[in-house]
Amino acid sequence: MVHADAANFAPDVTKEQAYEQVLDQAEGLFFEQRNWVCNLANTASLLWHAYKSLPAPSNQVNWAGFYTLDPQSRPGKPQLILGPFSGKVACQTIPFGRGVCGTAAATATTQVVGDVDAFPGHIACDGDSRSEIVVPIVVVPSAGSGGAEGRVVAIIDVDCAAPDGFDDVDRLWLEKLARLVAESCDWP
Ligand code: SME
Protein backbone atom coordinates (compact mmCIF):
# COMPACT_ATOMS: atom_id res chain seq x y z
CA MET A 1 0.00 0.00 0.00
CA VAL A 2 1.32 3.45 -0.94
CA HIS A 3 2.19 5.65 2.02
CA ALA A 4 3.20 9.31 2.00
CA ASP A 5 6.10 8.43 4.35
CA ALA A 6 7.90 7.21 1.21
CA ALA A 7 8.72 10.88 0.57
CA ASN A 8 10.12 11.52 4.07
CA PHE A 9 13.90 11.88 3.99
CA ALA A 10 16.02 12.03 7.15
CA PRO A 11 17.55 15.49 7.61
CA ASP A 12 21.16 14.25 7.64
CA VAL A 13 21.21 11.98 4.59
CA THR A 14 23.94 12.32 1.98
CA LYS A 15 23.03 12.98 -1.64
CA GLU A 16 23.86 9.36 -2.52
CA GLN A 17 21.60 8.09 0.28
CA ALA A 18 18.77 10.40 -0.77
CA TYR A 19 18.96 9.16 -4.37
CA GLU A 20 19.16 5.56 -3.15
CA GLN A 21 15.93 6.13 -1.23
CA VAL A 22 14.31 7.69 -4.32
CA LEU A 23 15.24 4.61 -6.37
CA ASP A 24 14.08 2.15 -3.67
CA GLN A 25 10.79 3.94 -3.08
CA ALA A 26 10.16 4.35 -6.81
CA GLU A 27 10.72 0.64 -7.36
CA GLY A 28 8.19 -0.13 -4.62
CA LEU A 29 5.64 2.33 -6.01
CA PHE A 30 6.01 0.88 -9.52
CA PHE A 31 5.11 -2.63 -8.30
CA GLU A 32 2.04 -3.75 -10.30
CA GLN A 33 1.67 -0.19 -11.63
CA ARG A 34 2.86 0.61 -15.17
CA ASN A 35 0.83 3.77 -15.91
CA TRP A 36 3.37 6.44 -16.90
CA VAL A 37 1.39 9.43 -15.58
CA CYS A 38 0.97 7.78 -12.19
CA ASN A 39 4.60 6.64 -11.95
CA LEU A 40 6.14 9.92 -13.15
CA ALA A 41 3.92 11.91 -10.76
CA ASN A 42 5.11 9.91 -7.75
CA THR A 43 8.73 10.06 -8.94
CA ALA A 44 8.56 13.87 -9.29
CA SER A 45 7.31 14.05 -5.69
CA LEU A 46 10.12 11.78 -4.44
CA LEU A 47 12.77 13.85 -6.22
CA TRP A 48 11.40 17.15 -4.90
CA HIS A 49 11.35 15.98 -1.28
CA ALA A 50 14.79 14.37 -1.63
CA TYR A 51 16.35 17.65 -2.82
CA LYS A 52 14.60 19.64 -0.09
CA SER A 53 16.15 17.36 2.57
CA LEU A 54 19.71 18.03 1.36
CA PRO A 55 22.13 20.89 2.02
CA ALA A 56 22.83 23.61 -0.60
CA PRO A 57 22.97 23.65 -3.53
CA SER A 58 20.57 20.67 -3.82
CA ASN A 59 17.94 22.28 -1.57
CA GLN A 60 17.86 25.19 -4.02
CA VAL A 61 16.20 22.97 -6.65
CA ASN A 62 13.21 24.92 -7.96
CA TRP A 63 11.79 22.49 -10.54
CA ALA A 64 11.92 18.69 -10.80
CA GLY A 65 9.91 16.66 -13.24
CA PHE A 66 9.40 15.24 -16.68
CA TYR A 67 8.67 16.03 -20.28
CA THR A 68 7.41 13.16 -22.44
CA LEU A 69 7.41 12.54 -26.19
CA ASP A 70 4.31 14.33 -27.50
CA PRO A 71 2.12 11.80 -29.36
CA GLN A 72 0.71 14.79 -31.30
CA SER A 73 4.16 15.64 -32.74
CA ARG A 74 4.03 16.33 -36.48
CA PRO A 75 5.71 13.68 -38.67
CA GLY A 76 9.47 14.21 -38.64
CA LYS A 77 9.17 17.00 -36.03
CA PRO A 78 9.26 15.31 -32.63
CA GLN A 79 8.53 17.48 -29.62
CA LEU A 80 8.35 17.09 -25.87
CA ILE A 81 5.23 17.89 -23.88
CA LEU A 82 5.10 18.83 -20.20
CA GLY A 83 4.59 15.88 -17.87
CA PRO A 84 4.27 15.47 -14.09
CA PHE A 85 6.50 17.81 -12.06
CA SER A 86 7.00 19.77 -8.84
CA GLY A 87 7.68 23.50 -9.14
CA LYS A 88 6.20 26.50 -10.91
CA VAL A 89 4.18 26.23 -14.15
CA ALA A 90 6.40 25.55 -17.18
CA CYS A 91 6.53 25.64 -21.00
CA GLN A 92 4.10 23.14 -22.45
CA THR A 93 5.97 21.94 -25.54
CA ILE A 94 9.65 21.87 -26.55
CA PRO A 95 10.84 20.79 -30.02
CA PHE A 96 13.63 18.18 -30.10
CA GLY A 97 16.91 20.10 -30.49
CA ARG A 98 15.76 23.26 -28.63
CA GLY A 99 16.97 24.27 -25.20
CA VAL A 100 18.56 21.93 -22.69
CA CYS A 101 15.61 19.51 -22.70
CA GLY A 102 15.34 19.37 -26.49
CA THR A 103 19.11 18.84 -26.81
CA ALA A 104 19.04 15.91 -24.36
CA ALA A 105 16.07 14.41 -26.24
CA ALA A 106 17.58 14.87 -29.72
CA THR A 107 21.00 13.51 -28.77
CA ALA A 108 19.85 10.94 -26.17
CA THR A 109 22.61 12.21 -23.87
CA THR A 110 22.57 13.76 -20.42
CA GLN A 111 23.09 17.53 -20.31
CA VAL A 112 24.66 19.02 -17.16
CA VAL A 113 24.55 22.82 -17.39
CA GLY A 114 26.34 24.78 -14.65
CA ASP A 115 25.21 28.16 -15.98
CA VAL A 116 22.00 28.17 -17.99
CA ASP A 117 22.69 31.68 -19.33
CA ALA A 118 25.75 30.28 -21.12
CA PHE A 119 23.76 27.48 -22.82
CA PRO A 120 22.77 28.48 -26.36
CA GLY A 121 18.99 28.38 -26.71
CA HIS A 122 18.25 27.72 -23.05
CA ILE A 123 14.50 28.10 -22.48
CA ALA A 124 13.91 30.19 -19.36
CA CYS A 125 10.62 28.89 -17.95
CA ASP A 126 11.46 30.12 -14.46
CA GLY A 127 13.80 33.11 -14.24
CA ASP A 128 15.08 31.77 -10.90
CA SER A 129 16.84 28.81 -12.57
CA ARG A 130 20.64 29.11 -12.70
CA SER A 131 21.70 25.52 -13.46
CA GLU A 132 20.02 22.45 -14.87
CA ILE A 133 20.42 18.72 -15.50
CA VAL A 134 18.43 16.86 -18.14
CA VAL A 135 18.59 13.06 -18.50
CA PRO A 136 16.96 11.21 -21.40
CA ILE A 137 14.66 8.26 -20.67
CA VAL A 138 15.38 5.71 -23.38
CA VAL A 139 13.38 2.54 -23.99
CA VAL A 140 15.78 -0.14 -25.16
CA PRO A 141 14.21 -2.65 -27.56
CA SER A 142 14.01 -6.22 -26.31
CA ALA A 143 16.56 -8.76 -27.55
CA GLY A 144 15.75 -10.14 -30.98
CA SER A 145 14.11 -7.00 -32.32
CA GLY A 146 16.63 -6.73 -35.14
CA GLY A 147 19.09 -4.26 -33.61
CA ALA A 148 16.57 -1.41 -33.45
CA GLU A 149 17.88 1.67 -31.63
CA GLY A 150 16.62 2.93 -28.28
CA ARG A 151 13.66 5.33 -28.34
CA VAL A 152 13.66 8.55 -26.27
CA VAL A 153 10.21 8.48 -24.62
CA ALA A 154 10.74 11.24 -22.04
CA ILE A 155 13.34 13.26 -20.17
CA ILE A 156 14.00 14.00 -16.49
CA ASP A 157 14.55 17.75 -15.96
CA VAL A 158 15.80 19.30 -12.72
CA ASP A 159 16.49 23.03 -12.32
CA CYS A 160 18.40 24.69 -9.49
CA ALA A 161 18.31 28.33 -8.37
CA ALA A 162 22.04 28.12 -7.57
CA PRO A 163 24.79 27.92 -10.23
CA ASP A 164 26.59 24.55 -10.57
CA GLY A 165 23.78 22.78 -8.75
CA PHE A 166 24.54 19.36 -10.24
CA ASP A 167 27.57 17.07 -10.43
CA ASP A 168 28.52 13.53 -11.41
CA VAL A 169 26.60 12.10 -8.43
CA ASP A 170 23.39 13.64 -9.76
CA ARG A 171 24.19 12.39 -13.26
CA LEU A 172 24.91 8.84 -12.08
CA TRP A 173 21.76 8.48 -9.97
CA LEU A 174 19.39 10.27 -12.34
CA GLU A 175 20.64 8.03 -15.16
CA LYS A 176 19.89 4.98 -12.95
CA LEU A 177 16.46 6.44 -12.23
CA ALA A 178 15.89 7.01 -15.96
CA ARG A 179 16.63 3.33 -16.67
CA LEU A 180 14.24 2.19 -13.93
CA VAL A 181 11.48 4.51 -15.17
CA ALA A 182 12.04 3.46 -18.81
CA GLU A 183 11.48 -0.20 -18.05
CA SER A 184 8.71 0.29 -15.45
CA CYS A 185 6.11 2.15 -17.53
CA ASP A 186 3.96 1.46 -20.57
CA TRP A 187 4.73 4.38 -22.92
CA PRO A 188 2.19 5.80 -25.38
N1 SME B 1 15.04 25.14 -19.25
C1 SME B 1 14.52 24.07 -20.07
C2 SME B 1 13.03 24.20 -20.28
C3 SME B 1 12.20 23.48 -19.30
S1 SME B 1 12.11 24.21 -17.81
O1 SME B 1 13.41 24.37 -17.22
C4 SME B 1 11.08 23.42 -16.78
C5 SME B 1 15.26 24.01 -21.39
O2 SME B 1 16.07 24.89 -21.72
O3 SME B 1 15.03 23.06 -22.13
TrEMBL record:
Got a GO cellular component term for this one? cytosol
Q: Which GO terms describe its molecular function?
A: L-methionine-(R)-S-oxide reductase activity
Q: Cite the PROSITE patterns for this sequence.
A: UPF0067
Q: Which residues form the GAF domain?
A: 80-182
Q: Which Pfam families match?
A: GAF
According to the UniProt entry, the coiled-coil residues are none
Report the sequence similarity comment from the record.
Belongs to the free Met sulfoxide reductase family.
- State what protein this is by name: GAF domain-like protein
| Source organism of this protein record | Lasiosphaeria ovina
